[in-house]
# Entry
Amino acid sequence: MKAIVYNQYGQPDVLRLEKVNNPTPKGNEVLIRVYATSVTTADTMMRRGDTLLSRILLGFIKQRKRFRIVGTELAGKIEVIGKDVSRFKKGDQVYGFRGFGTGVYAE
# Structure
């Protein structure tokens, strides 16, 4: 899949479109094909790394690899469900907020 990633803190020009591996959902997770997302203040703060809190959470010099793909809000359709998921089914249209999680700027 394609995703917007960054490998260093900075302005929007640090963002790159790259091909990344498709994630595999755990038993209690779902995989969502993202159709729409937003750019929030939190997303830009994470990308810039301009607060002490963002550096503590994401990494002081460069962000931790698991935070390379930013984005916290999404709308999309469930593609795959984990074995323990009972509330949703494949094909459900959903929207959500990842909280302190990231990874939404991706297909």
